[in-house]
Design a protein that fits this description.
alpha/beta, 4-stranded antiparallel sheet, 10 strands
């Protein structure tokens, strides 16, 4: 069997709150294999975003272990983690995280700046994605000139531009109208068919139902704990050569 590319082993993440220590995630274990489509489902406050941040090495567990591309997060420096995220992971954030004084095109290109790709190549790739997302006519606009749905589609283009192995999406269609949501979901499904690993967090049961035939595993969280696991679509993990 192939090895997991990301693994959480009995992970707990605590934060300090007004009433003392609060466990945002407790005893969370999950194996993610290449080509998986994982959905982390649960209501607001269930710990979905915290789980994504831990799985991406953007946060460190209070206890337990995160294995990220066969390396233990506890052994990695912030510089090491940033390099892994930059090269292997694309993020679609719930609140966009766009830079308001950069144009749409410039926002999309940002993840490519540390690479050795030419400016012509970067612009061509960004314009290709913006065309697919029906935004090419707004490439020179600023984020504040766009609707919330348009900003989210820019964030999707930015996540995809590095051709990452893993795409992490936190409520990727929550701000979108039905047509825009269809475009984004189609792109994620196509990326998954092409071998990309998708980890999607959502509180939207209708979205989960819509994606169900494509999902490798559904993890349901409540108050930071896994309360159920479902495997709608079994994955055949390739053997190691």
């Amino acid at each position: 069997m192939s090895e997991p590319i990301i693994e959480a082993i009995k992970v707990t993440r605590e934060f300090s709150g007004k009433r003392g220590r609060v466990k945002a995630i407790e005893n969370f274990s999950l194996k993610i294999y290449p080509g998986d489509f994982i959905v982390i489902y649960g209501p607001s406050g269930a710990g979905k975003t915290t789980a994504l941040n831990l799985l991406a090495g953007m946060d460190r567990p209070t206890s337990g272990e995160i294995i990220l591309f066969r390396r233990n997060v506890k052994d990695l420096s912030e510089e090491d983690l940033a390099k892994i995220r930059r090269e292997k992971i694309g993020f679609i954030f719930q609140f966009f995280n766009l830079i308001n004084n950069l144009t749409v095109l410039e926002n999309v290109i940002i993840p490519l700046l540390p690479t050795d790709r030419s400016e012509t190549d970067m612009i061509a790739r960004a314009e290709e994605l913006l065309s697919e997302l029906k935004l090419i006519g707004k490439k020179n606009r600023f984020p504040t000139e766009l609707s919330g749905g348009e900003q989210q589609r820019v964030a999707v283009a930015r996540a995809l531009i590095t051709d990452p192995e893993v795409i992490m999406a936190d409520e990727p269609v929550a701000q979108l109208d039905e047509k825009s949501a269809e475009i984004v979901i189609s792109l994620l499904l196509r990326a998954n068919r092409e071998g990309k690993t998708i980890i999607l967090a959502t509180a939207n049961q209708a979205l989960v139902n819509k994606l169900k035939q494509n999902i490798s595993k559904i993890i349901t969280l409540e108050r930071g704990k896994i309360v159920s696991e479902e495997t709608p679509k079994a994955r055949k993990h390739s053997k190691q050569k």
